[in-house]
Write a structure and sequence with these properties.
There is one protein chain. By secondary structure, this protein is of the alpha/beta class. It has a single domain (2-183), classed as Pyruvate-ferredoxin Oxidoreductase, domain 3, CATH 3.40.920. It is 34% helix and 20% strand. It has five helices and six strands, in the order E-H-E-E-E-E-E-H-H-H-H. A six-stranded mixed beta sheet has the order 2-3-1-4-5-6. Strand 2 (31-37) and strand 3 (46-54) form a beta hairpin. Helix 2 runs antiparallel to helix 5 and helix 4 packs antiparallel against helix 5. The longest helix is centred in the C-terminal third of the chain and has 17 residues, at 164-180. The chain starts with a strand and ends with a helix.
Amino acid sequence: MYQIRVHGRGGQGVVTAAELIAIAAFYDGKVSQAFPFFGVERTGAPIESYARIDDKFIRTREQVHAPDILIVQDSTLLGVTDVARGTSKKTIAIVNSAKEKDKLNIDLPKENIFVIDATKIALDKIGKNIVNTTILGAFARATGLVSLNSLKLAIKEKFKEKGDKIINKNIEAVEVAYKSSAEL
């Protein structure tokens, strides 16, 4: 079983990111789950969401305490909260930042850290600083846990009420992140 923890701030689509991972995994024929963890936080407060992917039934429903993969949507959290808690030397981190991985304050082996400027891509392709879909392109490429095609299907399903324009912008951002992650 792969356990994924997504870190971000309220209003950044952290919960939606975990849901999209679970939907994409389902489209790939896997068993998946997604759920948030937050209390009375407000917009801008640190929050987490979780996803799990497996080939068989997932019995556990608890928070992800020992993640195999970390997704950090907002790199300013690296100095505010211990996003690396419960990680191992094998944990993979995908971090949204314009900085190089050597400049990030995260206690993981550098070879396990993948940095993408998802903010730049989101602003360019979506027109807003909402990176939850964009960073999932890098997640798909870095981990191989979900396919690019399934991620696109998940976006179409999750955003169907938002209309084709929003769906297409998000898919384009995911594709750019996926392709640029080949160089990570």
